[in-house]
C-alpha cells in the first residue's frame, strides 16, 4: 500500500508534500515516514495519508478563484504623467519590477 507524506517544517506552518512510503499498515507507514522524511530536514510534524484517500477537485468541476481580472489594483493599470505624485510613480515602478520577477520565476 502506498502512503503519501506531508511535512511541516515549523509549528504553525503549512504541510507540504514531500514524498511517499510503501507500507502494509498505518503504523509501519508512520515509522517509515519518520525515518525517510522526518530526519533529514527540520521537521515539526508529518501527515501520513493512504494514497487512495486523497481526492482531487479539478477546474472542470468547480470554478476556482483568481479568474477575475483585477488589474485595477496595480498602479501599472493607470496612466501617469510627470506631474503625478511621486508615490504613484514609485508604486508603478515597484509593480513593473515585481511582474518582471514573476515572469523570470516561471
UniProtKB/TrEMBL annotation:
Region (Disordered): 83-106
Record-annotated membrane-spanning stretches: none
Composition-biased stretches (Acidic residues): 87-96
InterPro entries tied to this protein: PaaB (IPR009359), PaaB_sf (IPR038693)
Biased composition (Basic and acidic residues): 97-106
NCBIfam families named among the record's database cross-references: paab_haloarch
Protein name as annotated: Phenylacetic acid degradation B
Source species of the chain: Natronococcus jeotgali DSM 18795
Amino acid at each position: 500500500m502506498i502512503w503519501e507524506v506531508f511535512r511541516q517544517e515549523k509549528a504553525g506552518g503549512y504541510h507540504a508534500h514531500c514524498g511517499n512510503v510503501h507500507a502494509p499498515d498505518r503504523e509501519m507507514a508512520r515509522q517509515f515516514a519518520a525515518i525517510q522524511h522526518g530526519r533529514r530536514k527540520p521537521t515539526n510534524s508529518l501527515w501520513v495519508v493512504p494514497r487512495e484517500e486523497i481526492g482531487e477537485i479539478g477546474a472542470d468541476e468547480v470554478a476556482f478563484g483568481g479568474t477575475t481580472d483585477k488589474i485595477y489594483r496595480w498602479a501599472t493599470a493607470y496612466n501617469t504623467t510627470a506631474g503625478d505624485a511621486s508615490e504613484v510613480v514609485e508604486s508603478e515602478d515597484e509593480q513593473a519590477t515585481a511582474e518582471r520577477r514573476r515572469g523570470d520565476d516561471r
